[in-house]
Amino acid sequence: MITINSFKIISFLFLLPFTFHIFLANSFSEDESNSEKYIYLYQFGEKGSGKGQFNAPHSIDVDKFGNVYVTDTGNNRVQKFTSDGKFILEWGDMGSENGQFLKLHDLAVNPSGEYIYTLELKNHRVQKFTSDGKFILEWTFEGTGGKGSERTPHQVSIDSKGYVYLTDKNGHQILKFDENGKFIKSLGKKGSGDGEFIRPHGIVFDSKDNMYITDMRNSRIQVLDKDFNLTTQWGSYGNNSGQFSLTFPGIDYFEKQNLVFVIDKLSARVQVFDNQGKFITEFGSKGTDNGQFKRPEDIALDASGRIYVSDTGNSRVQVFGNK
Predict the structure, then answer these.
(1) Count of alpha carbons within 13 Å of 169, Cβ hemisphere only?
(2) Could you give the CA distance from residue 316 to residue 162 in angstroms, rounded to a whole number?
(3) Own/partner pairs for 82-88, CB < 8 Å, 24+ apart?
(4) Which strands make up the sheet holding 269-274, listed edge to edge?
(5) Nearest-CA neighbor of 271 among 212, 313, 230, 227?
(6) Paired strand residues for 125
């Protein structure tokens, strides 16, 4: 005869494997989810023209030592900070002479951390500096297949060999130079095919010199190898996860996890993908609170995985980390 207590024991034993399976599944999902979430850590900067203050900070990059460089566009200068936002130095003012800037738009640090390359929209030139702001040289875009004033490079990036690449937004091409400004070649053309662009903006390299490009008006990321062959692409127009608005200028690559981080300016968010374009997660929203953005422009990661975002409309840099 089966008693009530015996029935309870039998039911418990029957359900135990199923319950244990659910426990493991939930535990795995929770751990996996936590590893894919990014949280606000801290910020630095405020609106102004003093040291450590910003007026429309646009581009941001981090060197191998963890120093953070920001184009303080409205103040016509570059500012350098420690990883926790302490001011180190600044250089530049308004003008067209060596070391001066007009509509300073972007910067990039070379892999050794020795040189900083800046890009100006109004002066139509690249300037090269030491990491402490000493001017070295400049070059314009004459002789690149279009008149200098017709070329409109918007972002600069450096590959592992020191070659300098510019995204020519209105020319719908990528321009390649050596480290001293000698023009090598232009890549791509206007269109929607493989290796073609409509208003490309962001560009970054991984350790194998694959280039990741925000092909904005085609609403996609294109990944091209060092020989400019398409390896993968992803994206479509929209505001859903994995989609892009018409303005997604900033991009960076985190080598340790093979992750791609993309700024979606109009949606005020950062989207995270693996290097094959699989959507992982996103963070950010419109606003002025911690973790919110107003017209964010650029993004950079340091070696530890901390994420620096130029929150342009809020005149600050926000820093995020993995939860």
Answers:
(1) 18
(2) 30
(3) 83/302, 83/306, 84/42, 84/44, 85/42, 85/43, 85/44, 85/45, 85/52, 85/317, 85/319, 86/44, 87/51, 87/52
(4) 251-254, 259-264, 269-274, 279-283
(5) 212
(6) 120
Which two tokens mark 139? 């070059």
pTM for this predicted structure: 0.88
CA distance 311 to 198: 25
Dihedral over alpha carbons 149, 151, 152, 156 (to 10 degrees): -130
Q: What is the pLDDT of residues 228-270, one digit of tens each?
A: 999 999 999 999 999 999 999 999 999 999 999 999 999 999 9
What stretches in the chain show pLDDT beneath 70? Answer: 1-36, 146-149
- Alpha-helical segments (H) within the chain: 4-35
Burial 227-244 (b: 16+ CB within 10 A, else e): eeeeeebbbeeeeeeebb
Closest CA to 148 of 173, 128, 121: 121
206-217: burial string, b at 16+ Cβ within 10 Å, e else: beeebbbbbbbb
Q: Which amino acid is at 115?
A: Y
